[in-house]
Amino acid sequence: MLLVHAGREVTFDQLIGYLWSDDPPRTARSVIQVQISHLRRAFPGMISTTSGGYLADVTPERVDLHRFRRLREEADPKDPEIAFSRLSEALECWRGVPFSGVGSEHLYYSVVSPLLEERWSAVAEWAACALSLGRAAEVVSYLTPIAREEPLRERLHHLFITALWHVGERAAALSAYEEIRSRLAEELGVDPDPDLTALHTQILRADTSELTPPKGINAPFPDRKDVFVVRNDLPRDIPDFAGRRETLEHLVGVGTSKDERAKVCVISGSGGSGKTTLAVRAGHELVSHFPDGQLFIDLYGYTAEKKPLDEGAALGALLRAVGVSSDNLPDSVDERSALWRATLRGKRLLVVLDNAVSYAQVNPILPSAEGTLTLITTRNDLAGLSGTDYISLSMLAEESALELLAKVLGEERVVRERERALRVVRICGGLPLALRVVAGRMLSRPKWSFGHVERRLSEQSRRFRELQVDGQNVEAAIDLSYQSLNQDQRRAFLLLGDMIGNTVDLHGASALLDVEPEEADDLLQGLVGVCLLEEPEGDVYRLHDLIGDFSRYRGWKDLEPGESDKARWRLANQYMVVAQRAADLLGPRAHGNPDQISGSRYTTELLDRSEAESWFDIHQDNVADVIDFFSAGESEEEVWRMADAVWRFYAQSGNMGLLLTSQEKALRASEKQGSQRGRAVTLIGMGIAQCLSGRFDSALALLVEAKDLLADLGDESGMIRALANLGIVYERMGRFRECVECIEGVLDYAVSQGDKQLEAMQRGNLSALYLTQGKSREALEMSERLLAMGSDERLETSRIQAMRVSGEARTALGDFEGAYKALHKAVEMAEGKSMKEIYAQNSLGVAYRAGGRFSEAITEHQTALDLAGKSGNRSGDAEILTDLGITYSAASRHEEALETLEKALVTATEREERYMVARASLALGKLPEPIVTADRARDLLTDALLIFEELGLPEADQAREALKNL
Known about the structure:
By secondary structure, the chain is mainly α.
């Protein structure tokens, strides 16, 4: 399959479909990865991994399929001798049926069958060419086994019978005709086509062979008086075209490329996404490159009150457009297709096939002549078109949408109300048709402001009424796609409008639709295929805002009463079950719900921490909406359980907003129900959020209250959880004695329970605390002890911390090479794990500073700050800034040191991080005059000394020494 699509990505989903049709095993991806690994060993450097699958980087000439196609394209009918030679070479590329033995129906119908059609078309071209050169005997020899192999292909049999007649085998020709006539009657209940019947009649009458036209070729047709007509049928170009610049440039690049093959580009997208506008604009820009004409035909795939144009009628219209008279139009689609392709040989022509509905509709129409370009617009997947560029149109970006409005309404009108215009763009979801309707209405109503339009569009019940103007109607555009769905697809589409959150994955959709995942996948892909549903990433789906509005509006009318509510409850429960499982994989928990985890038939299988993090990352906003759903439904226990499941991920990813709001909602729900356990668990979550936000006094009060409540309830594991988080708060506040007491209490509990994961976490915390207290050897010993506990995946987070502490301890002990090695390993292990990665990078900077490698140290500190900015978790900023300032000072970059340390001091003071306040004050106080005056230095050092003494830390000696030296 990689070779069939040489140079283009083949996705995992495509490969799975090709191999297993609709019934892939659970291990499908793993099987493919293993086979790709084998192939890479066999073909080094050929296969590349892409974002969604794989790509074979191979010269097409090395692949028999592409060599066949190239040779066939070089078969110029104007020179029969060369055409015969090229077609003969092309057919030598074939060795049986492609992919024989795979046994996949999807592969056969989507790939193999179209390939075979290419082969038989080439065979027919070769035979016709051979007959025109008087080589009938070769045709008989070549087609004899093929006629047996393909008993129903009338075109091949026409050529075979003609060849038999030409070599004088009249009886054999009549016998061959009788065989196909009987077979067609018995198997299909039809007579041979008129051309074959006419040939039979000629043979019976003993007409001379010279009067028998070989079917499907140009040369033996009677001379025609038709003259090729050059014309431009493109609709009017839109002067206010906006956005799509890169896509337009791509289309123009395809049209102007030196590749002389027949080029085809499919432009797909939802109704109103601007497919036709883009194709027409590209056509106008390419006019000079296609001097033999620009044809445009609407195939009516999605036009109200019109049936899609059949391929025969479309070919008739196109042939007449280029000058073929109606009298010379063949009756059958095959013949019209052959005549169309022959007519375009040697021509440089652009063809736009607008509103195509299927592969079957467009395949016979596609030109094969070198130098032609066909642009196809469609709302459907046109599976089966090979050698084609595919462009899927998304919605306009906000700036492009504003540009469109400005071109229609004038830039001044948009600039004057930019923010309100932006809100209108967002309501329209960037859908070009909706934006054009809005612009059209505002153009005819000069006194309308964007604020007025926003208010009108914000009323859900009248939104679609506002999005229609003469000849343009957003609701009607969506409805045309909706009407094309079958009953099951319609139900799925309407229920998807009621999804909780903005996206849903395959298993969530399975719950929402109440079907097995395999059936859900078919339904979802069907909706993606007609552009009613978007798939922003594999197995994750979303509805465009306006399509979602349409779905909900129709659902209110068309769904059974209560069906929508039941679907939302199924989806909410699916989220609950998977969130509980994912939370268990992220770290130790005291308040999981193991009974519920096995209670859903739609559960997403999560096997390890990385899969859990990935699931939360995709669904973090949806989970927040599920909490709202449970809150509105009087399901108080589900609220706090869901909030408790997601807090760790929100904390680790730095999403403080969602962490705080989810816990606040859970607290209100627990208080409303009078659930003491729910209240206590939520107080822990809020305490963590307050701690990460630097509000340590609030965090302390919340966690102490939670611990007391859980003690009253006799919830020992919950109380230990509160104690563990209290230890973190005490550490950030510089209250190290209380911190040690908390950690040791949790450690004793973990050992008594045999909880290795919890034990590892506490040993990691204890090693870090030893380091802060200047006990470097104890810190190193504790971290090494933790690392010796094994490489169980559940200990990964603690092992990262231990590796970092090991590196920091070695730095303090002067073992720089050992420190670099440990900290590089810590950075590697922590990649993608937010705060763990941030602290590991910063610690590596400290080690480089201690080793005198200042530029490398500064780079690592700044990398840590950049990572913090990207993650949104700024809880370590004071520490990183302090270390960066100290490094600047060590490198004698005192001005930069002053600026950085001042910022660190402000940050630490605002967050009440007393230890960091002392460290930043000490570093500032040690800067030379006149960078810091003696008086200010004395104040800073005095403040630092007081804090270090209070905390009982060894840095107090440094502060005293610095004061003496003033």
